[in-house]
Amino acid sequence: MKIEDRLSLLNYKTDKSFAHITVDHNICETCPDNFCTYACPARCYTLIEGKLNFKYEDCVECGTCVVACSHGSVSWNNVKGAHGVKYKYG
Ligand code: SF4
Ligand code: SF4
Q1: Domain topology for 3-85
Q2: 4Fe-4S ferredoxin-type domain spans which residues (predicted)?
């Protein structure tokens, strides 16, 4: 099963007023490795024309990006209330 198919099994209740993960784009602009783009299983981090694009809305709350970014760019918080990803199958 492809990752896109697995992700399509998830439900999300997106909190549009609060991004539980933020990145410091000033740090990302000079990043030498872009590890986050390889590490995130939900592909929340992508490069568009060489610039980092981050979208918290598809996050599966695994915490990998905090560890993968060794440059101190990622700030991670728990989602608020009943927001975030909902796992339907285990
Ligand atoms: S989040 Fe971290 S690893 Fe990803 S581009 Fe920014 S500095 Fe680099
Ligand atoms: S917590 Fe996991 S799914 Fe969410 S952005 Fe970070 S690596 Fe991606």
Answers
A1: Alpha-Beta Plaits (3.30.70)
A2: 50-79
